[in-house]
Predict the structure.
Amino acid sequence: MTVDPLAHPTSDDVAARLRSRGLRVTGPRLTVYRTLARLGGHRSADQVAAAVAGDGPGLPRTSVYNALKALADAGLVAAVDAGPGTALYEVHGHSHHHFLCRRCEALLDVPAATPVQDLLGLQLPGAVIESAQVVLRGVCPQCAGTPAS
Amino acid sequence: MTVDPLAHPTSDDVAARLRSRGLRVTGPRLTVYRTLARLGGHRSADQVAAAVAGDGPGLPRTSVYNALKALADAGLVAAVDAGPGTALYEVHGHSHHHFLCRRCEALLDVPAATPVQDLLGLQLPGAVIESAQVVLRGVCPQCAGTPAS
DNA sequence: ATCCAGATTTAGACCCTGTACAAATTTAGA
DNA sequence: TCTAAATTTGTACAGGGTCTAAATCTGGAT
């Protein structure tokens, strides 16, 4: 079993990453991370909680939220705002942005070929930009091909 | 009184814009739009509702939400996600993006000198990109100058 | 000028996501 | 092994937004 540099971090990687941020390595955090990685894509906290519950005793809702927050602080998980009251989480992989279709509500990944924060950072002297989230809205290619209802 | 091309749209402009989208021109929609324009900046739905109430009989909370949604559909108002469960609205003026300070929670405007959607649109062939929202996160210039607590 | 169909407003209850709290438990270093 | 501090857990709570159905209003047709 060779090491694939593109694969998700192993549990050991996750543990090291948490420790390096001064966060403790706990069961819920590893469970939530592994579940989110296995599910892939954009998932709500409750989707994660449901998936965790499907694998065994499950975790309280609050614990899933706590774990997601800790993982996000450690930079292992990214939170995406897909509208008010709709937070989605995903394992932090290669940088990309999001496109939200107004017609079918699909959430598509958009490659981040351009370093957006570099461009915009110039406009905000003195600020430390730690992350940039881009949400594009419009009509996705599939819906654009069919006439509006 | 000359026409200032940089001024907010008049009520007539707003009415025309609503009609062009197949939306009806109603009292609540005009009231909400005018109030948001008068307040300026980024406002929550409840802030708008409170301001409306201060001017007379007020509007039910639901009506404010409905109106904001209709105005957003018409492109007259922009909704900014400033984290989960925190939607802010602003009159859709010149394109700009937002920076959210992790330390003091300030929400700053960032000039959009670069046409972000043009850059990213290239990555999504066939899609109709109607808006691009960029939320930068980090530490604002003021907080960056003071040591962390 | 009046009418009508359909969109919109309104009022209320409701849901959902996330947070606050305090006690029990667990981690990690001594 | 032992201890202090971080974390988990269960419960309750809060804010923001949505759903529903009846009343009202808009805008085109008559």
Residues 23-24, 26-29, 59-63, 66-67, 70, 84-85 of chain A lie near DNA strand D (CB under 10 Å from a C1'). Helices of chain A lie at 11-20, 27-39, 45-54, 61-73, 116-121, 141-144.
